[in-house]
Amino acid sequence: MDTTIRQGRPPRMSRDKIVATATEIMAEEGYAGLSMRRLADRLGTSPMGIYYYFASKSELLGYLFSRHDGVADYRRDRLPEDPCERVVQASEAVVRFLEAQPWALAGILDGYIGFEEFTRNHLSDLTDGVRDLGLDGEEAAATVRGIWSIVIGEAVLRSSAPRPRSAPRPSASCTATMESYLAGRLNRVHSHAEAQ
């Protein structure tokens, strides 16, 4: 009688392998290019092989977002006390995050990740910094939307610029643009308040 335990076929799939392949597909083809069937084909398995690990595409995307601390992973320093510097630094961290995580940029550009959702989940430092500048209500919301436009524009420019991987990405233009924008917003708000 044979008492050895049969190990069976070694697993070909893992959550990490599925996530890495999904990330590649989204970076190459955008969110619209990702389906469970397309993912299974790329991995050489059936869709049921994927569903064993993730019940749906939404669950897979949720897992992808929760794998790391998001934007906080891309901060260079501790957040400064000065709210203007904090907003600039948080904005630069978002640009670095989107540059390093092309699937997230693709999701934003394709409309699968909304501004409000991304802000709520990853940009509390930025929104808190804007409020600490003395902006509230509609002025704060308009300022955050303006910052978002600058950040997305910078991320798109960086992602499309051909350069060697080892070459550092310039951040001076983003910093100067953000500082200028904030100064203009603050000036506008204070001028408007004085006129009333």
UniProtKB/TrEMBL annotation:
InterPro entries: Homeodomain-like_sf, HTH-type_TetR-like_transc_reg, HTH_TetR
Superkingdom of origin organism: Bacteria
The entry's keywords: DNA-binding, Transcription, Transcription regulation
Residues within the DNA-binding region(s): 35-54
UniProt GO molecular function: DNA-binding transcription factor activity; transcription cis-regulatory region binding
PROSITE patterns to which the protein is assigned, alphabetical: HTH_TETR_2 (PS50977)
Pfam families for this protein: TetR_N
Residue ranges occupied by any HTH tetR-type domain in the UniProt entry: 12-72
Name of the protein described by the UniProt record: TetR/AcrR family transcriptional regulator
Organism of origin: Tsukamurella asaccharolytica
Phylogenetic lineage: Bacteria, Bacillati, Actinomycetota, Actinomycetes, Mycobacteriales
